[in-house]
Specification:
It is a single chain. By secondary structure, the protein is an alpha+beta fold. Helices cover 36% and strands 28% of the residues. A hairpin with a 5-residue loop joins β14 and β15. α4 packs parallel to α6 and α7 packs parallel to α9. The longest helix has 31 residues. The radius of gyration is 26 Å and the shape is globular.
Length: 356
């Protein structure tokens, strides 16, 4: 073999090694960092609410803790997707099921709003139960999403709050819907709204809402309410989002306002939305929240309760109500934990009042 041929073979071997090295680096980069159209859900944390709630002149000096539970949610990468497949406490969900097809930024904005709404309702519920003065201020209707056929698309955005329609302000979403519903499809409507805290106005045509024979703007909406209290209260949820902390925030605020010894030194966790009438609503991922509470040492877990009818079970996560799933998870993963069903805020207070 000539020296030239030997050199060529050496060059080819070197190039192959370089190519193989590049391929390995690219594969590892893809495997470790490439974002998939999937999300991984797993048990998050159970945090002491003492550090979240501050009420002037009403510190929390009682032993024990009320704990807010969370689900850890992260966009999947190939490596974490494989890991989740072998983790019995992790589930893989499609991005559409998690975010509803919105961007991550828009999804987070809605989750932050849900959290703030939960805090407002928790404050109102606790202050009412403690016979302390509070006042609700109805700001308007909060834009959760905009339908594809809406003529206001590009003008209104998720996170905006509509304060007036054609100069009229109403104190309920139903009031806005009734006023708009009486108008004809194609008629023009002017809305005043807040966008990132700034007042704006937009005019466009109304459309027929999908699935109903009613005229509308073409948005998914919810109430935007602010609660004012005589005794100042501050609630800082940190990085947590969503509405599921309502019940536990209510209990923490109520305990501080009344200084009642509801906990009796125990670590008490739970989950559930809190509604204006004090009722507790179901949430997602309760199995993971039970595990998070168990890891944090909680011995009592409040779970929303609804009657498990055939119709309800058909649409429930895992075809189980929140209480059924929480009880089953505790039996398997959290021995010694008492899962307590609650229909409303008073159920939780009544249960704790009987503990010693």
């Amino acid at each position: 073999m000539s020296k030239q041929s030997q050199n060529n073979n050496n060059d080819r071997r070197i190039l192959k090694r370089i190519g193989l090295g590049i391929a390995i680096v690219l594969f590892l980069g893809w495997f470790l960092f490439w974002p998939l159209n999937r999300y991984i859900e797993m048990p998050g944390s159970a945090d002491n609410l003492r550090s979240y709630v501050t009420i002037k002149g009403h510190p929390d000096r009682r032993k024990g803790s009320f704990m807010i539970t969370s689900v850890y949610l992260a966009q999947a990468r190939p490596v974490t997707w494989v890991w989740a497949k072998f983790n019995p406490h992790a589930t893989i969900e499609s991005a559409n099921d998690v975010t509803g097809g919105t961007s991550g930024q828009t999804y987070q904005k809605v989750q932050d709003f849900y959290m703030q709404s939960a805090i407002n309702e928790a404050i109102a519920t606790a202050y009412k139960a403690a016979h302390q003065h509070y006042r609700k201020q109805y700001l308007g209707i909060y834009v959760l999403s905009i339908q594809p056929n809406s003529k206001f698309k590009g003008k209104l955005h998720v996170g905006d709050t509509i304060t007036k329609v054609n100069g009229h302000h109403f104190n309920t979403a139903h009031g806005y819907q009734q006023y708009i519903g009486k108008r004809k499809v194609g008629s023009r409507l002017t809305v005043d709204y807040l966008h990132n805290g700034k007042k704006r106005s937009a005019t466009s045509k109304l459309v027929r809402l999908a699935g109903v024979s009613r005229t509308g703007i073409g948005i998914l909406l919810t109430d935007n309410v602010k609660v004012h209290t005589k005794i100042p209260v501050k609630v800082n949820p940190g990085q947590l989002g969503g509405p599921s902390g309502g019940l536990m925030f209510s209990l923490q605020i109520y305990q501080q306002l009344t200084n009642r010894n509801l906990r009796h030194g125990q670590k008490i966790a739970g989950t559930g939305t809190i509604n204006p009438d004090g009722s507790v609503g179901e949430i997602g991922g309760i199995d993971k929240k039970v595990i998070a509470a168990h890891r944090a040492g909680a011995k009592i877990f409040f779970a929303p309760y609804i009657k498990p009818t055939k119709t309800i079970l058909k649409y429930e996560e895992g075809h189980q109500t929140n209480y059924q799933m929480a009880r089953q998870t505790a039996k398997k993963e959290a021995p010694g934990m008492k899962v307590v069903p609650v229909k409303n805020f008073n159920d939780a207070v009544s249960y704790l009042s009987k503990q010693h």
